[in-house]
UniProtKB/TrEMBL annotation:
A molecular-function term among this protein's GO annotations: kinase activity
Family, as annotated: Belongs to the HPPK family.
Protein name (database record): 2-amino-4-hydroxy-6-hydroxymethyldihydropteridine pyrophosphokinase
Entry EC number(s): 2.7.6.3
Amino acid sequence: MTQGKVQILVALGSNLPWQGKASVNILHEALSACEEAGMARVAQSRIFATPCFPAGAGPDYANACAQLEVEKTAEGTLAQLHAIEAAFGRKRISRWAGRTLDLDLIAMGDRVLPDRAAWSHWHRLPPEAQAQEAPDRLILPHPRLQDRAFVLVPLADIAPDWTHPVLGLTVRQMLGALPQAEIDAVRPIST
């Protein structure tokens, strides 16, 4: 990694078509859009079919993860990811609603943002409160990544040894802590 650049982990998801394109195609095109925006692709996972979260909220998802290299701040990178989502028809109507494209900034190197206290608050927030509350600023690493097979399974494809800067666990260890049924529900559909 060159000076001034940092590697980020991004989770990609789609469960709604856009301009006649299926979710798998949207994810491929979104990765190309990231590169066009100056985010160098280091690695990308296979694409997986995953049950909609929360269950029953819409069609199943196509999910993947990518490791990219950027020179921007965390906030600048997030703004760029949101702009790409919007270019693919993303509408932020309600939390956990179906979407044409979701680009979640999962981690930025070993940074903890905005600080450990804020990260811990969002990490400990009960699931029922998560449905009602959203942070007003970027929280990194994503405070729920260790709970989500639809993120950890594709992330294990590209960064199994990435270590969570707060939990001290690798992607492989976090994935191994999940119930096997949740892991088995994430099925590869594309390379």
